[in-house]
């Protein structure tokens, strides 16, 4: 049975000092989350990540890289292809067995 979830919301808050902060709230898989930010960009990013996590019911972590989104997708696809090749080929030892025996004896 799916757990209760509530859409991520971003609210503007005026502090007593007069400064402005942004609070992001969401309920993901029955757990309530709240976080405050000083700038709107960070609040929007967290709101977006929590909403994706809520909708897809999976954990999301940001990818910090210089690659574009298309390059990341291509790299992930290449990794999946390599995984398939590795599983179909028997494992080969790159070590020389005689060197291993000498090390054990010495």
Model description:
This protein is of the alpha+beta class and 106 residues long. The protein has one domain. Helix content is 43%, strand content 24%. It contains 3 helices and 3 strands, in the order E-E-E-H-H-H. The chain has a 3-stranded antiparallel β-sheet with strand order 1-2-3, covered by helices on one side. The model is unreliable at 99-106 (pLDDT under 50).
Order of helices and strands: EEEHHH
Question: How many domains, as an integer?
Answer: 1
Distance between the termini: 61 Å
Q: Any low-confidence stretches, pLDDT <50, length ≥5?
A: 99-106
By DSSP (H or I, 4+ residues per run), the number of helices equals 3
Strand content: 15-25%
Mean pLDDT, all residues: 78
Task: Estimate percent helicity.
Answer: 40-55%
For the biggest sheet, the summary is: 3 strands, antiparallel
Task: Give the helix/strand class.
Answer: alpha+beta
Strands of the largest sheet, in order across it? 1-2-3
Radius of gyration: 24 Å
User: What's the total number of strands?
Assistant: 3
Globally, the shape reads elongated
